[in-house]
Write a structure and sequence with these properties.
By secondary structure, the protein is mainly α. The protein is built from 13 helices and no strands. Helix 1 runs antiparallel to helix 2 and helix 7 packs parallel to helix 10. The chain is globular and about 55 Å long.
Length: 207
């Protein structure tokens, strides 16, 4: 019957309406939570992780062009802690362009956001092979020691010879300093990333 042919269209339209309503409600919930996430940096981070991030993840789960655009907008304009929390939900989008759009916002001029973006890339289950040239180029341009510490897990996830060489060449030695030395932490994370490789080509190169 002809009505059966219409069912997929009706379902698609209905689903779109539901998602739109969900997104509108989530935006309101998010704005309310964001308004309450002020305070000193340590307090803001705790509030964002507890109250704002779960809503951002729900917005990401709507998985529409509108929700992705909203998250990218917040990544660029919200405070550091909130902006950093947008990275994971953006990368969770099924939109093929999401990883590249996220990577374009990586800059060590905004430390919390840069670390949030790199952390999201290190945890994602997405295949990053197609993004490898850009990941290598962008991460090589990072100079902030604290941001650099977040790079080894990302390049290690690529598990390629090019990524291994980039990591190996970035290791530096120098005099020890009191407290936590960012370069020492970075070097240790490079070693860990290289040890975890499953690539036969990388293992052969390291031998």
């Amino acid at each position: 019957a002809s009505w059966r042919k219409c069912l997929p269209i009706v379902f698609f339209v209905f689903t779109g309406i539901v998602h739109a309503d969900d997104f509108k409600a989530l935006r309101k919930e998010y704005e309310d939570a964001k308004a309450k996430s002020g305070g000193v940096p340590e307090e803001r981070l705790k509030k964002v992780q507890k109250s704002v991030l779960p809503i951002l993840e729900k917005i990401g789960a709507v998985d529409s062009n509108e929700s992705l655009g909203f998250l990218l907008g917040e990544l660029k304009s919200a405070g550091p802690e909130v902006a950093a929390a947008c990275a994971g939900p953006i990368l969770a989008s099924t939109n093929d362009g999401a990883p590249r759009l996220l990577l374009q916002q990586l800059s060590d001029k905004n430390r919390p956001v840069a670390i949030g973006i790199l952390d999201a890339f290190s945890k994602t289950k997405r295949d990053l092979v197609a993004l490898e040239p850009e990941l290598l180029r962008v991460t090589q341009g990072v100079h902030d020691p604290e941001v650099k510490k977040a790079i080894p897990p990302v390049l290690g996830k690529l598990d390629s010879l090019a990524a291994a060489k980039a990591l190996f060449s970035s290791v530096q030695t120098g005099k020890a300093v009191k407290g936590e030395d960012p370069q020492h932490v970075y070097n240790s994370r490079v070693v860990t990333a290289l040890k975890l490789t499953k690539s036969g080509e990388v293992k052969k190169w390291l031998a």
